[in-house]
Specification:
This protein is of the alpha+beta class. The protein is 51% helix and 20% strand. The chain folds into 2 domains: 5-57 and 262-412, no CATH class; 64-257, no CATH class. It has 14 helices and 10 strands. The protein is elongated.
């Protein structure tokens, strides 16, 4: 025998036909249970990662990776702040912006809006809104022309299309002989964008920065500077470095602070779903306990013979640990292959199931994301596989320990 005794006998027990077919059934169900649990874990976490990625990308279409603002109501020396921000090695582009609250009116339709003044020539370097234009042109935002680009849902609420006029009302007021009057300005709709997040599509209006300065009386000032990073996941580190070293007098925020509650909720949900689905693996793994206990009972005479031939209790324990570990390893491998394959081909599998059952899992009339996104993270796969293997190994300890305590004389008394 070129193999260790424990491994040889354990594999022999695994391959051999058992007299008790019920034990074989429990072993198979344990293996399939582990495979199903691992597959479900990998697939569900990949789908959650996919949803998180989709929403994050849609948020970042409107929210920059990094923003620098003053603690006061305006940033006057913004060209210097802009250049200072660009000096960081992780910053690849930066642009000024103005952001204020206002109302848009068209006839009897009124809607509160977030008015953002931008420079059309620099905005594409820090956001993707120019790529999301559904009608009109983003470049039609010209200084002094008072054009506006609206979100698709905002345009629908106001009942306007490209070329129509809307009235913008600002919080500031004009003092006239007739009294205090709200500050109004007529804008022409030059474009309509669609991000895919109702929060922005229903409230955001983009105008030229110079028009915003005139409208909100911010001559020479802006709200802040927006920056795009080469690695968005390094945004918190970049923010801390800029805040502590070069921009200590300003308020620096990164994209994760916008919608922080949403990202925190997703993280908690992923953790809870991971624990819940892990119970499937745990139940299947601990079925190995009942399987091996029955095997130990069935193999009492074999254990006694091995002991009389010189096998130690530790060696007997190793035999049954090998047998149980084989079930866990095969189940984990099958589950990993199934989970990875399903996650990578979800865009093909889901439409097939929808066509087969005649249903729509994510109705586009209800959901903005009409397809199940999948984003496979290999670190999740390794974590799931490791936990599954550990659970399978732990489940073998008690039956293997029971087998090692078998007394040869007692086991062979009635043979």
């Amino acid at each position: 025998m070129f193999k260790p005794v424990e491994l040889f006998v354990g594999l022999r027990y695994t391959r051999a036909k058992r007299r008790n077919h019920f034990i074989s059934f429990i072993s198979l169900s344990s293996m399939l249970g582990i495979a199903l649990g691992v597959t479900a874990l990998i697939t569900v976490l990949s789908v959650m990662n996919g949803f998180e990625k989709e929403v994050r990308e849609r948020i970042l279409d409107m929210v920059s990776h990094l923003t620098v603002t003053d603690f006061d109501h305006g940033l006057r020396n913004w060209p210097k702040v802009l250049e200072t921000t660009k000096t960081h090695q992780n910053v690849i582009a930066a642009a000024p912006y103005i952001e204020k609250q206002g109302m848009l009116i068209n006839g009897s339709s009124v809607n509160g809006s977030l008015i953002r003044g931008v420079l059309p020539e620099h905005e594409p370097s820090v956001s993707n809104v120019a790529e999301k234009i559904k009608s009109g042109r983003f470049t039609d935002l010209k200084a002094g022309k008072f054009g506006v680009v609206l979100g698709q849902d905002l345009a629908r609420i106001l009942g306007v299309h490209v070329g129509d006029k809307v009235t913008m009302v600002t919080p500031s007021a004009n003092v006239t002989p007739a009294g205090v009057a709200p500050r109004l300005k007529r804008f022409t709709v030059v474009g309509i964008f669609y991000i895919g997040m109702y929060e922005y599509d229903s409230t955001m209006a983009l105008i030229h920065m110079s028009d915003a300065q005139r409208l909100f009386r911010m001559k020479g000032k802006v709200t802040g500077v927006r920056a795009k990073l080469s690695d968005l996941f390094e945004a918190p580190v970049t923010r801390e470095e800029l805040q502590e070293q070069k921009l200590s007098d300003y308020w620096v925020r990164d994209w994760s602070s916008y919608h922080a509650n949403w990202f925190r909720a997703v993280k908690i949900e992923k953790r809870m779903i991971f624990l819940l689905l892990l119970l499937i693996v745990a139940v299947a793994a601990f079925n190995i306990v009942s399987t091996l206990v029955m095997v130990v009972t069935d193999k009492q005479s074999d254990i006694a013979i091995l002991r009389t031939l010189g096998s130690s209790p530790r060696s007997i324990m190793g035999v049954f640990m090998v047998q149980g570990a084989i079930i866990g390893i095969i189940g984990t491998i099958l589950g990993t292959v199934g989970g990875v394959s399903l996650s990578l081909n979800l865009d093909t599998v889901v439409p097939f199931i929808e066509g087969l059952l005649g249903i729509r899992i994510l109705d586009p009339a209800v959901y903005y994301i009409s397809a199940l996104p999948s984003d496979l993270h290999w670190n999740d796969v390794w974590t799931i596989c490791s936990i599954s293997l550990i659970l399978g190994l732990v489940a073998t300890l008690y039956p293997a320990w029971r087998a090692s305590k078998t007394q040869p004389a007692e086991a062979l008394r009635y043979e």
